[in-house]
Predict the structure.
Amino acid sequence: MTPIIAYLSSGILPAERRRLENQAQGLELPMNDGILYRRSFLGPLLRCVDAEDANYLIREVYEGICGLNAGPRMTVAKLTNAGYYWPGMHLDAVEEIRKCDSCQRHAPNALRPNNELIPVTSAWPFPKWAIYIMVPFPEASGRVKFLIVAIDYFTKWVEAKPVASITTSSINW
């Protein structure tokens, strides 16, 4: 914030002129009191704070006297309504909330898979099959203990065949 305050108070531009001008577009320094503010769209001026104050503010809003233990979006909204701003508010709130032990213990379990699902499509029935060999089961009549299962991707048709051993002759249908 120091180069932006120097630029707004005295108009001094360092070598990184364009970058500094772009960063200072929504900011103002009223009455040269050394406190940097950001203009909000319809609300009051938002006071810019440094990283140390930002962590304190997040902890105070999240788990202070009137702590709400809500998600990062609600925490950032409370901070903005209180009149504070810093770049990366949402990321800092997410990082600080992940450190909360009670929230991690009582959070709901996510039922979504960790990886994105990849759909396997087929244009007509029976061109693609998935074949699974099931682990040995207890031996049944006919000394069969393995199960070979084939599933068609298009129709979800299932074929299963019990076999005594896994050989090429037993897999040929």
